[in-house]
Design brief:
The complex is a heterodimer of chains A (327) and B (274).
Chain A lengths: L3 E12 L3 E12 L3 E5 L6 H8 L7 E6 L2 E2 L4 H7 E4 L11 H11 L4 H14 L15 H13 L5 E5 L7 H18 L2 E6 L2 H7 L2 E6 L2 E6 L1 H8 L2 E6 L3 H10 L6 E5 L2 E6 L2 H14 L6 E5 L3 H9 L3 H12 L4
Parallel strand pairs in A: 3-8, 3-9, 6-7, 7-8
Antiparallel strand pairs in A: 1-2, 1-4, 4-5, 9-10, 11-13, 11-14, 12-13
Helix pairs in contact in A: 3-4, 4-5, 5-6, 8-11
Chain B lengths: L1 H14 L5 H17 L6 H18 L13 H17 L1 H13 L1 H6 L5 H29 L7 H30 L2 H9 L19 H9 L1 H15 L3 H30 L3
Helix pairs in contact in B: 2-7, 3-4, 3-7, 4-7, 4-8, 4-11, 5-7, 5-8, 5-9, 7-8, 8-9, 8-11, 8-12, 11-12
Classes of the chains: A alpha/beta (327), B mainly alpha (274).
């Protein structure tokens, strides 16, 4: 135990046209851990997964998976690594058992071994009820689970999951989380997971790295990252950003750290609950009253805001609006 | 020292994958055929078009052998090879469409993440396409027989005709597959197979080669389809012409060699880790 399953040293990836997808990335993932790679779209998450799973080569730098070099020992890496890419690459005309058996055979299993493994995995991922259907008829959540099964066919030691719950409804998302946790706990698989959902990283990962613009901005356990912020925050929501701005100056005396985020004023305080009455009476004196007051423990979102100066949720909301999905 | 290390790692990776190249190809061919047969609507048009033209030519020009010099034997025996060849050209697209579908859906990448031999990924859809092409040719030949075709070389001759059709189709499949690997797009692949359409007419399509002249004759002489047509016509109408058969085999071989060099290059580019 405790050996390094994934080691990444000074990884750089440039694409033609002077686009730097990842820029001097270094991190390590210990055996049996879940490592969460958190960042907005275009931060370099998928590129990192492609390099670590041998689909792409880095421009410079080194990386190894399961002790094998990703550049010179690609076929060994493919043997120890299971991969579920963001775009689920499955043939909709095929049936789940056919896909699983084919995958198993390509990894060198005999026909009967591959069939036994297929049944085992369909059971494990609770797809045994739908084996006679073509994959094209599967729901998004079922396809994700089947893709996960395909990634597990050759009993990998390390599992790479690229945004495993993007596009799933909340229930399917929880299903996938449960499976990921179970694979990690029961089978001891090391998991490298990218996500743009804070609660996903918070929920699953032992260690979280926040990646922005191809670089790791901060890394640590979710608890440690949140603890580093140290303080609770008191969130005052006002009718408009203008009113929020006026209020900000009115309550300045209560905290060294005050943040204005659109219509919300955030005060970071050691004992936020005790400060509420005083804050309210101060606001009343200048004839301002908030629409709502909430108290939050630091979240990964706050960590994200702290290190990047932008809010991941807001970036996501903009994206969701343009793609028509809701969050 | 470096060389020794490399060799050690090669042996290790081959030992850890006990499946032979042949078995991998076999499994992938079966898989390709399974999915192809689940979309029969994609397989029928080439056959239907071949049969349509065969019937039209035969009904409108059936008496042509009496006034076009150089057609020895029946007009049906002269024109059936054209139907077969145009069938094998459109049928050669099956392999590429099969492949490009996998690329577009991301399944090709999924297979690349396994230790499968890269060549197996190229050969499997082509062989599956060849099986389909063989079936399509048999159907067209059967329709010819129904229309009254009486091949002078009998069943063995028909088998050679079918074999030549498959070989020509495999040769051209090398080109469409290159387009599939190069573009990764179904539309571009479709476009590439249309390029063959004119080739069918830059050949002794409706009259014997001896009646062509000028640039058309030059084009026809460097077109491998010409030699395949001539061999097939001889087999159906005049008898075993060893020279024509060998020439057509050579033409298919040269075509195949060029197209597969191209396909191998396209595969290297597609699977290059950049």
């Amino acid at each position: 135990m405790g050996s390094r399953e994934i080691v990444v040293e000074n990884l750089v990836k440039n694409y033609p046209g002077n686009v730097t997808a990842i820029n001097d990335l270094s991190f390590r993932v210990d055996e049996g851990k879940i490592f969460g790679f958190l960042g907005p779209n275009g931060a370099g998450k998928s590129t990192t997964i492609k390099i670590l799973t041998t689909l792409a080569l880095p421009t410079s730098g080194k990386a190894s998976v399961g002790g094998f070099d990703i550049a010179s020992q690609a076929s060994e890496v493919r043997r120890v690594a299971g991969v579920a890419l963001q775009d689920i690459g499955i043939d909709p005309l095929m049936k789940p058992v056919e896909l699983l058996v084919l995958q198993g055979r390509m990894f060198g299993a005999s026909k009967s071994e591959a069939q036994a493994r297929a049944r085992e995995l369909l059971d494990l991922l609770q797809l045994s009820g739908a084996t006679d259907r073509r994959v094209g008829t599967y729901s998004g959540g079922m396809r994700r689970r089947l893709d996960l099964a395909l990634a597990l066919v050759h009993q990998p030691r390390v599992l790479f999951l690229d945004e495993p719950t993007t596009g799933l409804d909340p229930i399917s998302r929880r299903d996938v989380w449960r499976e990921v946790r179970r694979l990690n706990r029961e089978l001891g698989i090391t998991i490298f997971l990218t996500t743009q959902y804070l609660e996903e990283a918070d929920e699953l990962a032992d260690t979280v790295a926040i990646i922005v613009g191809g670089k790791i901005a901060v890394e640590g356990s979710p608890a440690r990252l949140k603890a580093a912020l140290g303080e609770e925050s008191l969130n005052l929501v006002f009718e408009s950003p203008e009113i929020a701005q006026q209020s900000q100056s009115a309550v300045q005396q209560f905290s060294d750290r005050i943040q204005l985020d659109r219509d919300t004023v955030r005060l970071y305080l050691e004992q936020a609950a005790e400060a509420i009455p005083a804050v309210i009476s101060q606001l009343q004196q200048v004839a301002l009253s908030p629409l709502s007051i909430t108290l939050t423990q630091p979240t990964l979102d706050d960590v994200f805001l702290q290190v990047t100066g932008q809010r991941l949720v807001a970036a996501e909301a903009d994206k969701a609006k343009s793609s028509g999905s809701k969050r | 020292m470096d060389i020794i290390n490399n060799q050690a790692s090669v042996t290790r990776s081959e030992k850890s994958n006990p499946l032979s190249m042949f078995t991998q190809i076999y499994i992938l061919v079966v898989r390709s055929l399974t999915t192809l047969l689940r979309t029969p609507e994609a397989l029928l048009p080439p056959v239907a078009i071949s049969i349509f033209f065969l019937v039209i030519y035969q009904s409108t020009l059936g008496k042509a052998s009496s006034f076009i010099p150089g057609i020895d034997g029946s007009y049906l025996g002269f024109i059936l090879p054209l139907s077969i060849v145009s069938g094998s050209l459109s049928g050669s697209g099956v392999a590429a469409q099969n492949l490009v579908r996998d690329i577009e859906r991301g399944y090709f990448d999924k297979l690349l993440l396994t230790p499968v031999r890269r060549a197996a990924l190229l050969l499997a859809p082509i062989l599956a396409g060849a099986v389909i092409l063989g079936i399509q040719t048999i159907i067209v030949v059967a329709v010819g027989l129904l229309l009254g075709l009486n091949p002078v070389t009998g069943i063995p001759g028909l088998l050679v005709v079918i074999g030549l059709s498959i070989l020509l189709g495999i040769g051209f499949a090398g080109f469409t597959v290159s387009a599939a690997l190069g573009s990764g797009s179904a539309a571009a692949t479709q476009g590439a197979s249309f390029l063959f359409f004119p080739l069918t007419f830059l050949a002794p399509t409706f009259v014997p080669l001896s009646l062509l002249s000028g640039w058309l004759e030059v084009a026809a002489r460097i077109n491998p389809i010409t030699y395949v047509l001539q061999a097939m016509r001889a087999l159906l109408n005049t008898g075993w012409d060893t020279q024509a058969i060998l020439t057509s085999l050579l033409a298919c071989l040269i075509l195949g060699a060029v197209m597969y060099a191209l396909a191998a290059f396209a595969l290297t580019v597609r699977t290059r880790r950049t």
